[in-house]
Structure formats: structure tokens, C-alpha cells
Amino acid sequence: MSSGTPLNRLADRLRQPFRRDARPGRLRPSAVWEDATSTAGLALAPAWKKSRGLWLRYAWPVLSVVSVLGWSVLAAAILLWTAGQAFGWQEAKAAAIAAFVLFVIAIGFILGRSSYGVVLDLARTRVAVGDSAVGSIAVSNTSARPLLPAALELPVGAATAIFHLPRMKPQQVHEDLFTIPTARRAVIVVGPVRSVRADPLHLLRRQVLWTEPEDLYVHPRTVALAGSAAGFIRDLEGMPTTDLSSADVSFHALRDYVPGDDRRHIHWKTTARTNKLMVRQFEETRRAHLAISLSINTDEYGSEQEFELAISAAASIGRQAIRDQRELDILTQAGPLRCQTGRTMLDDMTRIVGTPMRRTAVDLARTLTDTVPNASVVFIVVGSNVTPTQLRSASASVPMGVRSLAVRLQPGAAPARANIGDLTVLTLGDLSDLAIILRKAAA
After folding, report:
1. Residue 94 in contact with residue 81, Cβ under 8 Å?
2. CA-CA distance, 184 to 284, in Å (whole number)?
3. Fewest 10 Å CB contacts: which of 9, 54, 122, 310?
4. Counted domains in the chain
5. CB 194 within 8 A of CB 186
């Protein structure tokens, strides 16, 4: 038996003396109680684990069939029978017997077994807000006898759809189509499909699950951006900087050769003319690396619509960067998002939940600078409640040589551009204007 089993731990505990306080001969009551409860827990752990397994396997499937109304009727029947016995009330006994009879009759409605083959098919498991999410349920009678009319339930998020099945002959297939509303960004759990047997009074309710649940991702709405609209996403030649390098693609000047220089960069024509070794000097370039700071602090947004607009704007910029095969990092107060593919990025965008918090967009911008030190362009996406002073503080954390832009959301506002020091502030009132304000920033 391993040393980590409950019995071994119990034996080790029993070998240990009770803890005493600093004065010998006196036991602390709290220490005695703590040791006693801990020892009792270790002693009863195996029995509790076994009892719990038996309960979940045998008792719970039977007891879960009884509805809340069923338990109420059963309790009332017991109380009426007890009162009738105690006080000789024949009416109370008659009512208790009637309740028990109803319970026995209800059992007959849930007995039996149906044999269905159920296939739940979602045409698409990922849609954008406003798109149609269509699915189907195909039910077949897999038994050798006809099945009576029945009902199937399909949980869709917090709602439940009911599908009525007709009388089905053996091997007959019945199919129903359904549409799921996608007015809001969400991850909707669809299923599992379940058949329900219940009596007319719903005292007993028996469910049988036929499929596994599936997740439907309702992605935020995005718009396509032209490659030039982003304006800051460079190609392989990158964005020149003032940093000099001995090996790159942007030629800068010639200098004297020093030991350790790569001989492949010797400029032989100048060397022959000056009679001394000269090497090429390059400007260091960087590959476009976008970093997006998306604040999920709802205190910084004027409304829920504004918050959803911020998510859509960040998702649109990130999606275009991934399409152009650029490096991308997106950070929120809850942590980084997966940006390996557009699908994973939009999935994580869908899971975002905004909450009031102490960490502001300024704190997030500082964290982004430490997390993504190689960024060449930084987008700071914020709500209308963020002040220009806060934006200036956020831009101060961006290193020199990194292009920084703030996308400030304000539903209904005209697209505009302003500058706060080195920070370009873009005001976005509608998602369709995102390409316009990015072209303004690039101009």
C-alpha cells in the first residue's frame, strides 16, 4: 500500500502526539479539536468515497426522476397520513392515499425504453454576430417496433427548444431544422439532445441524453481592411530605425574595417580606391510586429455597445494582421489572447467578459510594453471615458521608435484624428469607419 493512501496517512497521524502550547502539561482546546477532526476525516475518507460512488451510481439516478412538485406531493401525503393516524382524521388519510395513488400512476408514465438514433448537426460552429446559425436534428427509430409520439428537448444556452416527434415506424427518420439567434457575442452551448418522459402532472420526469453538447461561437463583427489601410504594417524590408547594424537589408554607409567584421560585407571597389579595407554599414530594420492593448475595464466605456465596438475594432485589426502574415500580440487585463490563427484569436475575443476593475488602460499599456518588447506598432483600444491625460500616460510607456496609436471608441461620432505628443488618437464612431481612420493615420 502506498504511503499516500488514506489509511497510511491515518496511521501516521495516530503516531504523532497532540500539539501542546508553550507550557507543558496543558493542551490547547483548539489544537485538540483540530487534530480530532483531521483524524476523523482521514478515518472516514475511504467510507465516504465508497458511499458517494454508490449514491451517484444507484440512488441519484432514481431520486433525480422526482420533480420538485413530486417531492412536495410526497411530503404532503406523509404529513396527511401522519395527521390522520394521530387525530383519527379519515379525510386526511383519504387525501394521503389519493396522493400515493397519483404517485404510483405517474411511475407508469416514465417506465419503458425508447430506441432512438439522434444526430445533432450544426452547419457552422462559428458565426459572426448577425449571421444565421442553422442546425438540424435527425431522429431515427432504431428498434424493431413502432414508437409512439414523443418530445425531444434541445438546450440552447439558457433556453430550451422542444421538438415533437410523430409516431415512427421502424427505421423511419424524422428531421427538424432550427435557427439560433446571434444578436450578441457569446459562446452558446447547444445540447445535449434529450428525450423526456413525464406524467401529465409532472410529478416524475425522466430524461435520456442522446448526444454530446456542442459549442457555438458567435464571433464579434469585423470588417475587412485593405493592406494599405493599416498603413503601419510593413513588408519584409521593415521600418528603418536609427540603430546601426553590420548585417541587414537597408544600406546606410561605409566605414573602416575592424577585426571581427564579416568579410562578405567588404566593399572591394572602395577598398581598391582608398587602399584600405572598407565595409558596408546598414540601418537596423525590424519586421512588422503589431501589439494591441484592449482594455476590458467596463468603467472606461460609456455603454455596452461601446465595449462591443472596441472588441470588434481590435478583432478587425488583428484579423487583418494575421491575414497579412504579420506577428501579432493582443493583451487584456485578463491576460494575452491566442493569436496563432484568426480562428483562435476570434474564439478568445468571443470569450472576453468585461468587468469593472482597478487596472486601467494605462496599467495595461505598461504591461504590454514589458510583455511585447519587440513591437513595431502599438494600438491602444479604449473607451470614451478614458481622458487625454490617461492616454498621454499610456503613450509614455511605449518605447521610442515604436509607432503608437490610440483607437478611442465613441458610438455615433464622426471619424477623426488628433495628436497627443507622439500618440495618434483616432476616434471611431462606427465599425465601418475603421478603414477610413486608419488611412487618415497613414496619411
Report:
1. no
2. 46
3. 54
4. 4
5. no
